[in-house]
Amino acid sequence: MDPFKNLHLDIPQTQKKRVVIIGGGFAGIQIAKGLKGHGFQVVLLDRNNYHTFQPLLYQVATAGLEPDSIAGALRQLFNNYPDFYFRMAKVTQIQPEEQKIHTLIGDLYYDYLVIANGSKTNYFGNQEMFNLTFPLKQIPQALNLRSQMLQNFEQTVLTRDPLEKDKLTNFVVVGGGPTGVEVSGALGELKKHVLPKDYPDIDFNIMNLHLVDAGPRLLAGMSEKASEKALKYLDAFDVKVKLNTFVKNYDGEEVTLSDGTVIPAKTVVWAAGVKGNIIDGIPESSLERGRILVDDFSAVKGIKNMFALGDIAFMKTDRYPNGQPMLAPVAIQQGKLLARNLIRQSKNEAMKPFDYVDKGSMATVGRNKAVVDMPKFTFGGFPAWLVWMFVHLLSIIGFRNRLVVFSNWVWNYFTYDRGTRLIIRTFVRNKNYKQGESL
Fold first, then answer.
1. pLDDT of residue 5 exceeding 80
2. Is 18-121+275-347 a domain of CATH 3.90.226.10?
3. Which residues are catalytic?
4. How many helices (H) and strands (E) does the chain have?
5. Cα radius of gyration (the chain)
6. Are 343 and 337 in contact (CB under 8 A)?
């Protein structure tokens, strides 16, 4: 029986231009907001009914925050928005010639299509092997990692086998970008300040944290000074960092590295990279390096009335010959500009090209330990940590969420405690299990 047989999109016919947005991430939200009150019918599609603030997913995974504090209901974001329609649906195919999309609950024609469905975890051709690892792109994935981590320590208390204890208490993080560095730092804080109080019968000297990266330094997208500071901060948490090294094999029990090192570990966090989440129907001629090729106006090359924003978009410029950075600020700025450009186009005015305004990059390693790259200088330590917190608080959607996150951070700072160490749902892994991907 088809579970979607009696379901329909039910979008009203209209004389207005219909803008269909695929993805409720940073870019999708910004363009939807920007079109309000300008004579468009706006349809937003996402497989979830909420927006996720992905930069803080690692804190959900490491028991620092609850998932609802970094998520905002999409319908709530667009209350009192005339001619706006949200549908929780997965887009399965695009037909550019007919200007039509297919979903599991019906088809929909568009005047303008905006693809802003983000990226998915890049396993670099090793999909089957790395189905055993934990990516961090979605809230369910973060909860899986949290459950796995806490279950490991509960099992460590119950086992007498030294090798099994090693497998349960060793953690390997693959990827030295911001996510990998932040996860490693959070695990280091748990090891030093939190878990020993919960599990006094475990000798936490046996817990080893490993960060593995194929590149020559951490935080490759930031300055060398920031990389050096991050390495220093991780060393203070006893994180063993291996550079110029990649994972050669993983069977769920042991990690084999390219230098021959074998690490017994039942938990491997995959933060080694992402790629565009391409929807069927986009021709190969419009793709480059696993992303959708767009011009300076975010229009998909070779396809009429189709745009792509954020991580999914590959916009080459003299300044960024390898495409714009896959960062939230890029997606936000592109979404805002495209909304203004569609309004300009509706008034027969010239559209303006995108020019990314880089306000800086940042990453945190833990309490009082962060690095910030500004356009002209770099700084770290406590001041950088305060800036990191301030910027992230402002970026979270909803006053309630900001208040909850801030109160959690204040509590954690003064008590060295994490208040969400709950195994709400037991995580059970097998070799046929596949971590879900984004829309």
1. no
2. no
3. 182
4. 12, 26
5. 22
6. no
